[in-house]
């Protein structure tokens, strides 16, 4: 009997791990598309799981996951946005771009490909350097 309980716990843990990996891949793809749409740099090419919970939906109980996204506009440093998933459905996503930054990001979307894919943050020089 103890083996059956251990096997069930192992199966549940494996399912949760695989479901979490699938949700993370989905959130990464959404974040990449969102950054490309706004013409900004998607830093580290990954998302970070910040919060997990349960939520009742019309289809039953689902896992709710909040992923944060790191991005950069031009060479202005690191900013954060989020992607909120319920199961595999997108509940909300936002990069927190103010209106003027959205317009600037849309205008600067024609940067060179090597600048868009670079994983190095260039910091502005200090006056007098």
List the helices and strands and how they pair.
Layout: H1 2-38, E1 41-57, E2 60-72, E3 79-86, E4 89-94, H2 99-107, H3 113-117
Antiparallel strand pairs: 1-2, 2-3, 3-4
Your description of this structure?
By secondary structure, the chain is α+β, with helices and mostly antiparallel strands. It has one domain (12-117). 40% of the residues lie in helices and 34% in strands. The chain has three helices and four strands; from the N terminus they run H-E-E-E-E-H-H. The protein has helices at 2-38, 99-107, 113-117; strands spanning 41-57, 60-72, 79-86, 89-94. It has a four-stranded antiparallel beta sheet with strand order 1-2-3-4. A hairpin with a 6-residue loop joins strand 2 and strand 3. The longest helix is centred in the first third of the chain and has 37 residues, at 2-38. The chain starts with a helix and ends in a 12-residue tail after the last helix.
């Amino acid at each position: 009997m103890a083996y059956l309980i251990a096997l069930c716990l192992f199966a549940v843990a494996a399912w949760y791990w695989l479901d979490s990996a699938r949700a993370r891949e989905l959130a990464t793809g959404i974040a990449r598309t969102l950054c490309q749409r706004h013409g900004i740099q998607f830093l580290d090419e990954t998302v970070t799981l910040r919060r997990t919970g349960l939520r009742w939906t019309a289809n039953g109980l689902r896992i709710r996951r909040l992923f944060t996204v790191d991005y950069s506009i031009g060479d202005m440093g690191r900013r954060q946005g989020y992607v909120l998933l319920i199961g595999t459905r997108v509940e909300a996503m936002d990069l927190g771009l103010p209106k003027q930054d959205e317009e600037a990001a849309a205008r600067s979307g024609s940067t060179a490909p090597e600048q868009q894919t670079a994983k190095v943050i260039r910091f502005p020089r200090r006056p007098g350097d």
